[in-house]
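Protein 1 of 2
SEQ + STRUCT:
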Amino acid sequence: DKTMMASVGYCDWKHAPRDLARHESSESHIRCLSMYISRKAKTTSICKDFEKQNESDRKYWCKVLSRVLSVIKFLSSRGLISLSRQNELVGSPENGNFLGILELMAEYDTFLAEHIQKRVNKGRGHVSYFSSTVCEEFIDILAKKVLNFIISEIKQAKYYSVSVDSTPDITNVDQLTIVIRYVLPDGPVERFVQFVPIRGHTGSQLAQNLLDFIEDKGISLKDLRGQSYDNAYNMSGKYKGMQAVITEHNHLAEYIPCVALSLNLVGKCAAECCQSAQPLSNTRWSARHDAINALRKGYQAILQVLQAISDDEDEQLQTKQTAKGFILSMEKLETAAVVFMLAILHRKKKRKVRLEEQSRSEGTSLDSSSRFKVESYLLIIDQILLSMKTRIAAYDRLQRFSFVARFKTMTNSEIQESAKTLLHHYSNDLEESLPEEMIHFSALLKQHNFNRECSIEIQNLMSAFPNVSVVLRIYLCLMISNCSGERSFSVLKRVKNHLRSSMSQQRLNSLALLCIENEILTNVDTRDVIKSFALTKSRK
């Protein structure tokens, strides 16, 4: 009953259609086909076995990578990533924080313990995903996702301000920090985005670094509404400073000096009006006179300070001995004579005695309290007021926004005039209906006492007051301080220290971004990161 096709093979292709029809109707073909259908119903195919095996492997490696990623996120958020490329053996006390925490987790995680026992420290050809290369790839992926999230928020918020500052790192490379402020529905935020190594400190060079970053990330320069730097000339210069170069590209980017630094400089200028101890100069005789004069006026105070230092048990021995040496020098008769003879040798212009005058005193005698008030306190207050008036003038351009904080107490005519002034300056951002919107919005706020917890209700009202929304977003995105940039320098010192001075610029930016913006890092989807990691591996 077997045909030629089912027994010895077939080669008569000329009569193939006839023989195929005969074979399909044969008893052997029907019996074999029924056996195939029966076995297929009872058992699975090899393809399904492969699919099950692949799915099992995928779940296994996802569990491994999720634990690895959790450790990396924890260490990165605290700036504690430490990898030992020379020693990547699990169990070694010198393998770094990354492998060390995985070892600690394995003590309480049976799955991770079994994975380490089966696949770790087995040499080449055994995949474990515990290597420093995998850790670096995850850091790079996480940093890109955090930065992309920040860039998307900036584009969604539209209006933003920038602040930059620079400081040298451990290798004496000047790092320019870039911080961007923008407004979210919950309020304004300031985000660190990047460190940029700089080779020049002129205003044009610093501005070009910022412009290159904005262009590279696809952020609109025309939406820049504020810039805040310190009071250095290369930053704040009116003609060649960085703020002048940025203003040439966008005249709406208002320059606002750092308020905190300006206030600090006010106190510094006020303190400079009081005389302090001066070092001697080998060439300038006038400097020697200033030093001796300062020593004469503060002789007792300086002596008391030196005595306190020499008696302090917490001070270093060298410091205490130096203070004792100064005390012995000051207590010498020659030193006291030279210091106090300065007052005798000081030339005075004698005043003529007037008619019927009983005394010829050179001035009014004051007690110690009055002398301090006249010679120190009033001088400091005058200097503070003078310096404050000078530095407050830099914020005069922001007066156009002053009515935003007090329009609940203003009349309708005052609100209308202030709104027209603002409309004239931001004619491309605001519409002609702004004065009327501000008047209606002010009336609404007077009727309903909104607080910070009502931000959702206020956000819903913004659809009815679109121009008011634009004004508030521009006003709140203005950066008045570069304190966030100063804080980023603290992270720079921790991340790039003397033990990791040779790290690349990309790794520095990734670790700094993950540490500073750890709130965003915490919300990054683990499955999305693992998927991106798998795509990079498949491309390789």
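Protein 2 of 2
SEQ + STRUCT:
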Amino acid sequence: MGVQRIPAHRGSGWKGTRGTASALGLDDSATAFYRYFFDPETPRLGAHVRLLMLEGRPIAAQLGLQRDSVRYIIKIAYDEQLADLSPGQVLMDRAIEEACGAAEVTRLSLVTGVSWMRDWRPYNRPVMTHWLALTPLSQVLLGIWYCSYKLLSARNRRVRRTDAEGTPPPARG
């Protein structure tokens, strides 16, 4: 079963045209990519499509990859008309249960880190960050911003740690 079986409700819900516009089927080139990558005849990079069926029709779906011992869930979809029954959550629960029981899986990555994932209390691990600067000036500005960000982040971690310990930060001078 391939991408063509995934419930893609173009104009409805938070993934529709009035929401994030990330629903499968909204962007023809993205849909073509998913169809190619998740073609059941020639799966690529451990690509898999997981479906939750009701009376012979898909009501929730997940697109995923498995690389080495890590299983990634990269795209989800569900029938918005059945949102009160939480078909996406039911399918996610099954995916977690399956991954926990699979000897070849050491980690299940939900990849995107969005708020609905908090129900499962996942461990947050940064995967990768890419920066693209097109001009020399933007490279310099990006470098300054990044260094400032890292310095402020380190300072804030120190302050939070000392606040948690109840000790004042060391005096500078």
